[in-house]
């Protein structure tokens, strides 16, 4: 995948996530998993000046965001991630199974790709492992 196309995909993912967040924020951590027809994506963010973690699926209830709007943006996010993964395959790069996308309010961004086989773990185990590795110990960047 050429660098410009990657940058465009990263920007589209970031813009969609930021459109989903209804307040000022300090950082966002997104997890996406895509393999053999399975897809999962979620993110956490911290409101500006807070150490509280907000889970993306709590946004509609907590912030009076319409479920329809949220679902539309969630589908856009899925589409951007799907295009990103397909571009890896199209460019004959090894397709990742999951990624962690980190974004700070100052614009710093980091993407970590993982190629591990994930079919042997249930979704709850994967999520708990990811949370432990990414949301604890001050690892926000």
From TrEMBL:
Family matches, as InterPro entries: YezG-like, YezG-like_sf
Gene3D superfamilies: BH3703-like domains
Protein name in UniProt: Antitoxin YezG
């Amino acid at each position: 995948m050429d660098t410009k196309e990657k940058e465009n995909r990263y920007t589209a993912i970031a813009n969609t996530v930021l459109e989903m967040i209804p307040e000022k924020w300090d950082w966002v951590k997104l997890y996406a998993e895509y393999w053999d027809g399975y897809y999962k994506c979620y993110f956490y963010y911290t409101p500006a000046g807070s150490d509280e973690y907000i889970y993306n699926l709590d946004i509609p209830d907590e912030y009076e965001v319409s479920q329809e709007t949220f679902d539309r943006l969630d589908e856009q996010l899925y589409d951007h991630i799907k295009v990103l993964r397909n571009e890896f395959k199209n460019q004959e790069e090894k397709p990742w199974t999951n990624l962690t996308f980190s974004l700070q309010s100052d614009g710093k961004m980091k993407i970590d790709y993982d190629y591990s086989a994930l079919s042997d773990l249930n979704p709850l185990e994967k999520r708990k492992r990811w949370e432990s590795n990414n949301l604890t110990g001050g690892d926000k960047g």
